[in-house]
Amino acid sequence: MVLYFAYSNYIFPVRFHENENEMEHYSNEDYAFFGVGPAIILVSLYFLVTELRQLFSSSDMSEYFSSIWNFFDIVPPIVIPLIVIQDFLRVKYDF
Description:
By secondary structure, this protein is mostly helical. The chain is about 75% helix and about 0% strand. Helix 1 crosses helix 2 (about 30-55) and helix 2 packs antiparallel against helix 4.
């Protein structure tokens, strides 16, 4: 949780708002990302595997998804690695 908090509040905003010419050189946030990003992905994959085991060990998938808490358990380990990967690829989007 602490790693993701540091990433989402300090590392990601700086990297996301960099100009194209600032991307040519690594900044402190880039070095922090290279350390924190893979750790976040590994932790997320651990929790995803745990939830998938729980999902497939239940007798029925509808039984697993009948609890709202299981949605809260399975969505973050899917979404968080996608955010980290798009940051690694420097994907920019405009709202």
